[in-house]
Amino acid sequence: MPFITKKLHSPVRQMALTFLMDELGITRSEGQRLIARGRLTQNGIVMDDQFGFVEGSCEFICFEPVTRGFKPMFVANDFAVYDKPSGLSVHPHSRQSPYTLNDEIKHQFGEDANATHRIDQETSGLVLISRHKNSESVLKRLFSERAITKKYLAMVRGEVKGQIDIQEPLYRKDHPNLLISMVVKVDPKGKPAHTIIKPLRYFPQYDMTLVEASPLTGRTHQIRVHLFHVKHPIVGDPVYGPDEEEVTRFIKKELSSEDRLRIGGSTRLLLHAHSLEFTYENEHICIVSEKDFIQECFEAMGISRG
Question: Catalytic positions, please?
Fold first, then answer.
């Protein structure tokens, strides 16, 4: 478990922020961030006020990365790229979360390294990470300005005969019910979203098409929802396609690989972040995944590629 609790001791009454800075050798801003996140407790009470005081025994919850030897596919001075497998989360969802890509990022590049964009746990493929705070700021700005071109591969139901330009707003309702809050829908109340779909290869024997998806905006589940909306759902999507009962079972982690294969035709979501292209410090960068996505699709569907 990457989150562990350390026992600390303040011999005198002092400000919580000063104590953490001295004890952990961190900057003021880092200390403020950790206190705001409720990482410091005393007598079971969270010390979330940086101007509060501590004295005597206290506990600090810290993130200690655990490596499994998963290496990035590309490393530069300021950033790196991982080719993530489906099923691996980028960040821990809670302090009880097991191993995530964040473990490898922090283990290999240090505390200041971070993922610079979102990618679903179910989606495989390229994740761009910054190696320090300066590059994080630059790369996140490039994403916000849409100066980084992302292209995905997806295996979808049916035959896609030509390019599809999808411009449908996407809406997600903030709701205590996890099913309601998780599912994104095409809705006029939503935020603008734009995806371009290009067919690459049709497999008539399985009535499915390999497509390239280019999201021109960055909404949650954008490619998945847009493809579902145009009647070409992604093979193996556990949320957009199955009935509500099966979606609920997926959210509750009650579906086995066999269940998913039976229900959705694949043991995983067949969506892959295939390439990243951008300019960094006047250098043109183009990174393409080395994975054989078609082979991975067929393996996940339990059929022979031949």
Answer: 120
